[in-house]
Amino acid sequence: MNRHDPPLEVDPRQAFALASAGRPLLDLRSAAERMGGMARGALAVDDPADWAARTLPADGMLLLCALGQRSFRIASALRERGIAAQSVAGGMAAWVGLGLPLADEVQVGGGLARYARQICLPEVGAAGQARLARARVVLVGVGGLGAPAALYLAAAGVGRITLIDDDVVDRSNLQRQVLYSDSEVGLRKVDVATRRLRALNPGIDVIAIPQKLDAHNAPGLLAGHDVLVDGADNFPARFAVSDASRRLAIPMVYGAVERFSGQVAVFDPRHVDSPCYRCLFPEPPAPGEVPSCAEAGVLGVVPGMIGMLQACETLKLLLGIGAPLVGRLLLVDALAMHWRELVLARDVECPGCGSSGADRLRRTSPLDPGSG
Questions:
Q1: For residues 42-57, b (16+ Cβ closer than 10 Å) or e, as one string?
Q2: What is residue 355's predicted lDDT score, i.e. its pLDDT?
Q3: For tag attachment on the chain, is the N or C end more exposed, with fewer CB atoms within 10 Å?
């Protein structure tokens, strides 16, 4: 390289300008990485030296990889062979982080800049973000669990969020239900939540249903969704969600809290070995057996922790990534900050998903607290 050669690295903004003016921009990443999205105008090239020999670019070429390190090494090697090449500094991560344009098919859900930190994850990518934009999630209850879950699902770009809750904002909610403010006491939760979520992300659709969910209306209200998020505060609603989950073959993300503890699990009827909620609780407890949050109390941050875990499990299900909590019950003790996991096997005699409910198997399980 002599002093008249252009620098080996070029800023992503300058690279975009050069590519827009006709300079070849070569994406050196693997096919799997490219599936997550490509820079606008980039060409997928595995061997830039061979490509250059066949194409003979007059002004050289720009090389793009994931982080800018591999492209820098290859650009250096090509320079030694007399082939004009420059590396895009920071790679695709920097390109996305700066909000530079991607291929048209990845301009999803309100623009690249909003989701840049998510799209740059190989497990998500532009294809995953587009999948979230098409997703439909319903939250049963917009209280202690549903409020934080709704906020993070909206922020993540879930395209349609349905809120089912017949309650109004009470001043006692404000210690933990982070969607609401003091000036909104007495208003319907779904109305306040809808305004807040739309303000957070105008690119999503939010549907408010101010109804109490029960066994009769659950199938109709929950049908057509991809994931059911259980934030209910009573056993009849939880059983209604569980029964509809099995009937509609839609995964249910369960969460519950009490005092300083909480629990999370995923019941997914699409998996033949997945338990259901009735495997954990075959039938509702007797009145007064399980205290409500009003009776037992709850530390305000605990519903937030569990609601965010539910949102995380929901996103994993929608994206098809990671290992959802199917067949596992995650227990959180916030006072000791201790996390443990129980294996939750499908009960063959479960009254919900088992082959026979004649002789129901009684098991010892954590008490199901409320939604907060």
A1: bbebeebeebbeeeeb
A2: 65
A3: N
